[in-house]
Specification:
Helix content: 25-40%
Radius of gyration: 24 Å
Structural class: alpha/beta
Oligomer: single chain
Length: 476
C-alpha cells in the first residue's frame, strides 16, 4: 500500500449502505485513525463483498463460494481465516454474499450494490462507460495497481481498461484465481500418442523440432484407421478461432499491434497472420482434414471427444483442463501442456495465449465505500499462508494437476503472456474473421476484405479507447 501515512490524515464522510435492499443510505464518519501498535481502526464499519461468478457460458458457476473459492476447501478455509484476522485487527465486518443482482440498475437507483465486487470481467468496458465502477488509479493511496505479482500484469488487466484508467484487478497472488482465465493451450494425450507409435511431443519441444510442419506429421501418425473406420484422429477440433489465434501468436503476430508510427493496427491483415489462417484451413478443410475430428461444433463437444480418446491433440480453454469444469485433469493422467508449434517466420517458441475475460476480477462500485474497500481488499489479497511465492503456487499445481514439471513451465509462461482478444468488448465482432476463416466457399482474402470495415470500427470504438488507458497508466 502506497503512502499509508495519508490514511492517518484523512477524515471523511462517506456513504455506505448496509443492505442491498436499503433505499436510504446511512452516513458514517470514516476516520482511518491510528491505534496502538501498527494497526488502524475502521471503527466497526460494515463492508459488502459481492461474489457473482456465474459466467453464463459454462466456464465457471460458483453459486456458493467464499471470495471465489469452492466452499469447504483448503483455500476457502484460508480465505475465511484471513478475513477473520483482518476484521479483528482493523475493526470492521465483511459481509459476503453470492446473491445475484444487476450492478447497473442498482447503482442507477442509488443503492449500494457492493463495496468490493468479484466477477468475470466480461462487461467491464460497458460498466466503466456507464460510470458504475471506480477507477483504480483514484485509489492508489490504498492499493497499487502496478504491483503485477499481486494484481496481474497490464496484459492481464487489459479487459478492464477504459479511457484513462483501469477499473478492476485480478487476484494474481492467490492460487487458482486466474488459472482458468486463458486459452488455448495445445493439450496432448501422451499415453494415447505412445499407443499409436507416434513421437512424444514433450521431447520434440525439448529438441527444438516442434514446428508447424512437424505438427502436421504427428497428426498424420496419430490418425489410425481400422478397416473403413477411423479409431483415432490426430486433432479434436471444431472451433477455428481457438487454433487460429494460437497459430497467429506462434508465428509472431497478435490481434493488436503497433506500426512504426506507434499507431494501433489489426494483426489479422499481416502476412504472418495470413499464413496462420492458411495453416488452419489446411488442417481443418484441406490437405490434413482426414486427421481432424469432424463436426465438433461446441467447446463441450471438443472436450468430450478429447477425453473419450477420439483424438490425441486439442486446443482447449483452460477452464476445461483445471478447476470446477476441468474434465481433462479429472479424466486423463499423462496429458501434456505444449507451446503452439513454431511458425515459419520465427526461430524459437513463442509462449503466448489469449483470453476473453478474467474470470476472477475485483472492482469497487461507485456507490460503495471505495477507499475503505480498497484498503481492506489490499490486505485480504496478500499471498495466502503456504503459498507466498510463485514457486509455491507452481509446486502446488505441479503436485496436484500436472504429470510432468515441463507442463507446469509451459502453462505459467502461457498465462503470463496472455493477450486480450476483445471478444466480449466488441460483441464478438472482432472474432468474425477467425470464426469464418475455415469457410471453404471463400478465400482468405475475401473474408479479410468483407470484414475490414467491421474491424476498423471495432478498433476505433473499443480497442483504441481501452488502450489509451495503457499509455496513461503504464506508459507506451
Amino acid at each position: 500500500m502506497k503512502n499509508i501515512c495519508k490514511i492517518l490524515a484523512v477524515v471523511m464522510l462517506l456513504t455506505l449502505f448496509i443492505g442491498c435492499s436499503q433505499e436510504t443510505p446511512e452516513e458514517f464518519d470514516m476516520d482511518f485513525s491510528k491505534t496502538e501498535g501498527n494497526s488502524f481502526d475502521l471503527e466497526g464499519i460494515e463492508l459488502l463483498y459481492r461474489s457473482n461468478l456465474d459466467s453464463g457460458n459454462g466456464a465457471i458457476d460458483l453459486s456458493e463460494n467464499y471470495l471465489g473459492y469452492v466452499m469447504d476447501t483448503e483455500f476457502s478455509d484460508l480465505a475465511m481465516q484471513r478475513v477473520r484476522e483482518l476484521e479483528d485487527t482493523y475493526n470492521f465486518t465483511l459481509n459476503v454474499t453470492t446473491d445475484k443482482a444487476d450492478i447497473v440498475s442498482m447503482t442507477a437507483g442509488g443503492l449500494n450494490f457492493a463495496d468490493i465486487f468479484l466477477s468475470p470481467s466480461f462487461n467491464f468496458f460497458s460498466w466503466s462507460k456507464a460510470g458504475v465502477l471506480t477507477g483504480i488509479s483514484k485509489l492508489s493511496d490504498y492499493i497499487d495497481y502496478k504491483d503485477s505479482k499481486k494484481w496481474g500484469s497490464p496484459l492481464l488487466l487489459e479487459s478492464m481498461f477504459y479511457k484513462d484508467d483501469v477499473f478492476g484487478l485480478t487476484p494474481n497472488a492467490w492460487p487458482e484465481q486466474n488459472f482458468t482465465s486463458f486459452g488455448y493451450p495445445l493439450v496432448a494425450n501422451v499415453d494415447l500418442i505412445t499407443e499409436n507409435g507416434a513421437s512424444d511431443p514433450r521431447e520434440l519441444v525439448d529438441e527444438g523440432l516442434w514446428t508447424w510442419d512437424r505438427f502436421t506429421e504427428e497428426l498424420e501418425k496419430n490418425t489410425i484407421r481400422e478397416g473403413n473406420e477411423v479409431r483415432c484422429y490426430g486433432l479434436c477440433g471444431g472451433n477455428s478461432a481457438y487454433m487460429i489465434q494460437m497459430l497467429m501468436h506462434s508465428n509472431g503476430i497478435h490481434l493488436v499491434e503497433r506500426n512504426d508510427n506507434g499507431e494501433l493496427i489489426c494483426g489479422y491483415f499481416d502476412d504472418r497472420a495470413i499464413k496462420a489462417f492458411e495453416m488452419s484451413r489446411e488442417i481443418s478443410i484441406g490437405k490434413y482434414k482426414h486427421t481432424y475430428v469432424p463436426d465438433l461444433s461446441s467447446s463441450e463437444a471438443i472436450i468430450e471427444s478429447f477425453i473419450n480418446e477420439e483424438g490425441t491433440y486439442a486446443f482447449l480453454p483452460t477452464h476445461f483442463i483445471f478447476g470446477v469444469y476441468g474434465a481433462v485433469s479429472m479424466n486423463l493422467d499423462n496429458f501434456a501442456i505444449l507451446p503452439t508449434p513454431m511458425g515459419p517466420d520465427v526461430d524459437s517458441y513463442i509462449y503466448s495465449s489469449v483470453h476473453h475475460t478474467m474470470y476472477y476480477a475485483i472492482s469497487f462500485p461507485t456507490t460503495g465505500n471505495s477507499e475503505a474497500a480498497a484498503f481492506v481488499a489490499n490486505k485480504i489479497y496478500e499471498p495466502l499462508p503456504g503459498y507466498e511465492t510463485h514457486e509455491d503456487i507452481k509446486e502446488y499445481m505441479s503436485r496436484n494437476f500436472f504429470f510432468d514439471e515441463r507442463d507446469a513451465d509451459v502453462f505459467f509462461k502461457l498465462l503470463e503472456n496472455s493477450h486480450y482478444n476483445y471478444d466480449y468488448t466488441t460483441g464478438f465482432d472482432i472474432r468474425r474473421i477467425p470464426e469464418n476463416i475455415n469457410n471453404a466457399t471463400k478465400t482468405v482474402a475475401a473474408i479479410l476484405e468483407e470484414q475490414s470495415s467491421v474491424v476498423e470500427q471495432c478498433f476505433t470504438e473499443y480497442v483504441e479507447v481501452a488502450l489509451s488507458a495503457y499509455d496513461v497508466l503504464f506508459g507506451k
